[in-house]
């Protein structure tokens, strides 16, 4: 198809989109040479995001909804069967029907052990086909659940538009991609770009092939450090794939992705760094560069496993980019006090209910004696949400006449004070019967602050009931220094009032 034909289809669609549904059977008559209606339909699918149209079940196209994205979400109980079956199909292609037993099962189990050991030792992992399959079996289900929880929260906060342009950096085998695709209503538009240089891209490509007609996607096989998120895509004028009939939805960017992404001057609505910061040589510099590719009201989401090293590294990178760079922290570690930034260690992570054990993990684990070594159903994660428009999840500025900043804690040890703080953990008490313990932060703390609930009452029950990331108001809390932990304890007793702050 020549460019003139494509442009004529675009022009006619642009003219008629607000008049009546766009019918390829009608539209082809207005184009020079009258290309087949199937050709017109394919162009409309490929250009849907730029034209702001969505395809209906009858094959016609209508204007896409505008405004903020609204999603229905009620938690994640299990990894969807259809995705698990797709992974099992890939495993079967690799190792046969009995991929989980015999030599193939032993090889896969040993590779997963090696991945976990290298991760714990902070060593690089070589991403070949077997490694990618190991990640898909062991990590894809919980990564999917994590991404779905966080993305649903972003949508609930009104941070995602109905016509959504996404860049997924270090996309791996597809946790965020699948979660995002499942969250979207049928009439939403998704222009999804993945940056993934390894064999994991092959798994991702396979999982994306059945995307709906209102999803356009492309995989750029490039290192995150080499990919240019601010440059327009060069080469093929098709704009990538557009659903089931796209022949792999545009496939991979064979140029290596260094020529950039299919974005315009407005930038991306959402950029995701999912469990990849720990693998970058200079995570802060890389994140800094990608932040500048956000739309004016765009969001950058960084995810990390909940283990100590990666969760703390996430906060370190967050501070380099947000407290001295182009972004601000939307959440969860909101900077409540102007011109203040934290220096505390802040091993902070959220936790959601476990998902059901995927069948593929159970199959791999059973020949090993059913020890649980190859079962991964925990949904625990650290995350950071950055923006460039100054918007914060809690748009509150404390009053020094009422609230004490955590930065000044050494001045009021043994005193009772009032302050605002974000709840940054679930109960951290290590033994049964111990006083509940929660990490707090107001964005100014120099060392960690922990709320210790020594005497529960109706006046302070919000400390226990509040969700991770909620803003709390403390009245008459006793502040003590804990030598053992080298941290401040905020004692919440019968004289303390704790309320969710609005």
From TrEMBL:
<protein>
    <submittedName>
        <fullName>Uncharacterized protein</fullName>
    </submittedName>
</protein>
<dbReference type="InterPro" id="IPR058470">
    <property type="entry name" value="DUF8157_N"/>
</dbReference>
<feature type="domain" description="DUF8157">
    <location>
        <begin position="6"/>
        <end position="56"/>
    </location>
</feature>
<feature type="compositionally biased region" description="Gly residues">
    <location>
        <begin position="237"/>
        <end position="259"/>
    </location>
</feature>
<feature type="region of interest" description="Disordered">
    <location>
        <begin position="227"/>
        <end position="261"/>
    </location>
</feature>
<feature type="domain" description="DUF8157">
    <location>
        <begin position="407"/>
        <end position="500"/>
    </location>
</feature>
<dbReference type="Pfam" id="PF26487">
    <property type="entry name" value="DUF8157_C"/>
</dbReference>
<dbReference type="InterPro" id="IPR058959">
    <property type="entry name" value="DUF8157_C"/>
</dbReference>
<dbReference type="Pfam" id="PF26486">
    <property type="entry name" value="DUF8157"/>
</dbReference>
<dbReference type="Pfam" id="PF13489">
    <property type="entry name" value="Methyltransf_23"/>
</dbReference>
<dbReference type="InterPro" id="IPR029063">
    <property type="entry name" value="SAM-dependent_MTases_sf"/>
</dbReference>
